[in-house]
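ugh ok so i messed up the first submission bc i forgot one of the chains. this is the corrected input, ALL of the components this time, i swear. 481 residues overall. if the numbers dont match what u have on ur side tell me asap before i send this to the collaborators (the ones from the other lab, u know who)
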Amino acid sequence: MATYPGRVNEVRQDCGGALEAFVACPSSAVPPPGRYLSAYALVDIDAPLATPLFLSQLAPGGFWAAPPFPASWLPGTELILRGPLGTGFDLSSSIARLALAGLSDSPARLLPLALVALKRDCAVTLYTDAHLSALPSTLEIYPLSSLHEALTWPDLLALDLPLERLPALRDLLGLQPGDLLPCPAQALIWTPMPCAGLAECGACAVPSHRGYKLACEDGPVFPINHLEW
Amino acid sequence: MFKSSLSFSLPLMNAAGTLGFAPELRLHRELGQLGAFLTNPVSLTPRTPAHGVRYLTYPGGFLLHTGYPNPGLEAVLRRCVPRWERSPIPVIVHLLGQGVDDLASMALRLESVPGVMGIELGFPKDATHNLVRAFVEAACGELPVIARLPVDQAVELAPTALDAGAEAVSLGAPRGALPLPGRRLVEGRLYGPALFPQALAAVRTLVQMGVLVIGAGGVYFQAQVQSMLSAGALAVQLDSVLWRGNWVSTAD
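and heres the new structure output, hopefully the right one now
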């Protein structure tokens, strides 16, 4: 399994005010949108487990890692990185209209999709209730409460939400249990992944129409219509 | 077949549930440090993951409540036997005790499976002396049986397990509870560095009792492995440190 050295070179506030870290690492270690690295800081000798790191923004020499990460990580912190792991977003070239919806604390894990799509001259909208700044001016932002009005618009809806908020998403969209979304949708299911793909331990199990799936290996991004929610 | 004795080329192994059902090539760095491979817990019939909260943290560790999901013995055999046969290190299958008949049939089935060196036996929570005796007796056959006992019950239950036919005892995670909002408690197994002193004390006591013991619990550093071996442990199992990573370079 690939492991790489990494280093926290800078810490800054992300668009929502949470802290994100610039991780210097080889380009082969940079996780594509929705995939993750399992990261362990050498200074955290008492840390029981590693931290999953997701891409927030590409940058020369590494990447900006989306929040959260341990408060002990300061510039200069040396990391051991394993990955990239899991299954990420599939942003095919045929997509012209992309909707993003963040139901987690930060929409940072969705932003790399927006940047890729905007480069391709796609129309991109972001639905979030987070207070945001420093976003591309071409990105339209709406409150989550209006998401249900836009379900027929996008070629792809990309979501980021905690596993326990799947029922809340259904309510938000005015759907009944078992209803399918009218548009293609992929969801990054945010849930603890303690074994990070090593053990099939089941802690990150996500119910699907074909039994349970593991966020650490099969996900954390899933076609949402494959999930039981 | 003859009843093999438990000996390992290296006194380290993964704990059951930490590296999956079979040694895989992608784990070569981890496997190179180990003298045996422990499979994930396997039951006779498939088990699905536990519902609700399955992972919580606390200072010094974390609580895990997974329900030991697995596809059942026959599915595991179909999927894993070729890799067990090719494994560079011996494989010990961890059987999840649910009933005496289940265990007896699973243990018998494994006797004809190539690549299997032994059985590690897990018990339900709050296992009694009678249950431990019945389960160990059911699992004993041609393959050596290691009884995995929670570290907080091992000293009490080990004599019963050995008397029933187990060759050794390994230490399993103790159980604990953590609160959720609304005062509901989540119960599960405890892992993390905070467990090491308790685990080392259990190793020492078991060795003094004459028990062949495989130490485990909170081991994150090579020096802790040496402490357990110096206390008389036959071998040491690594658990969550394998998930955290960097065990190999920590050991160097």
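quick check: Helices of chain A lie at 111-119, 166-172. that seems consistent at least. The longest strand of chain A covers residues 3-13.
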